[in-house]
Amino acid sequence: MGSMGKGQMWINGQSIGRHWPANIAKGKCNDNCNYAGTYSEFKCLSDCGQSSQKWYHVPRSWLQPTNNLLVVFEEWGGDTKWVSMVKRTTA
What we know:
Elements: E1 7-11, E2 14-19, E3 70-74
Antiparallel strand pairs: 1-2, 1-3
């Protein structure tokens, strides 16, 4: 959901949650990160300019074998071509 603005999502009538890039990392990103030393909120920034949450969990019990309906309500005009669902397995 990193390509979307502000809104909400539902799968088969169940609310997945809100998507809203309220906490976008700002500042100078640094790939060479070291947490040692004095605390600073600007230390070890990553994904600068990106939304703080891109991934959302959909319980498998909410899904049907076929014909699942994903509804995305978008208020700010995001780009849906980058929205996808991925099946993850756990060990």
